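Thread: Aminoglycoside phosphotransferase domain-containing protein, structure

OP (GT): Posting the sequence first so everyone is looking at the same thing. Length is 340 residues per the record. Can we get the structure tokens written out before standup tomorrow? I want them in the notebook alongside the other entries.
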Amino acid sequence: MAREWNRWDEEENSREGLDVRRRTLLGNLALTVCEFRKFSFATGGALYFDGGEDFPRVGPYYHENGLFTKAHERYGDTVAEQFTRLATMVEASHAEKRRSLKERRQFRGAVWLLTELMREFVPSFDKEIVSGERISGTKSVAEALNARFEAQHIPFVRPYHGKYLFVVRHNDFYLQNIMVTKDLGIAAIFDWDVLESVPAPVGYTAYPLWTWMDFHPHYVQRMNSEGQPASSEEDLKRYRKWWLSSIEDIMGDHPHAADVRISHIWGAIHEVLRVCNVEGALWVARKFMREANAEMGGTMPVDYFLEWMGKSEHKQLDEIRQKVLTKVKEWIQAVRSGEV
């Protein structure tokens, strides 16, 4: 798909022609992935889309007992452990003084903000997630995690049945893993051997990775590069609009369609947790706060507020934290409702 997405056709010789092809590709891909709501699988690998009764077809390789829809309860356990690991790494860095006090406070502030947002996202997310008081700075990350498991300080998250649906997700849903036909149809999607079970906003109908590089701490450097022509922030917003339009046309008022609007926001948190990236958590928190400033008319001094949110105690700590959290949540709600 990468070649078709980036190909400049001399006969078209226009940006309009390139946009038509890209919109067609996104529409056909949306049509394909929406079929996943009808299926559950016990194996993973490459999924082929050749029609017929066996659509889609698994092969040529597979993994036994892949984490598909029927294993959805594991997501709650996973995200609790990921947050614990991330918070523990922040505390280890804080204790060992490998960074400036300002940086360490900003890391803490970022983890606090993302934790609070996850509580909004998954209502059962426990408020007793690891804190600096519980983890000794002299312990290694492994020792701290072992102590956490032994003491059972962190109750696992459980999915909220009846409201949050759990679906399959490709960890690398990028151009190189999608095969297209000469008429821009979808022939196959590769590398589905690392499937996860996740809530809908980061599931199969979420924006493809290359359409939200501006929110992805690992892909953001690809924006405006020679290998990614027409990949400015405005371009990416346009691609997301096309994807959303296609999903809504196909799925109507299905709950998963509404979740697409915020999939890049929750996807940013999910990617940071998946690889336990402390620097990525700070980048994502900054991104959210800056977007809230831009879209909601805020004037938050981002780095200053992040540092204050990461302080252990201060008479204005709760006030500043709530001010930031409220502004970011207002922005997320505006995105979800289509206001911005």
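GT: Both are above now. Quick notes for whoever picks this up: DSSP finds eleven helices and six strands in the chain. The chain has two domains: 2-72+162-274, 74-158+277-337.
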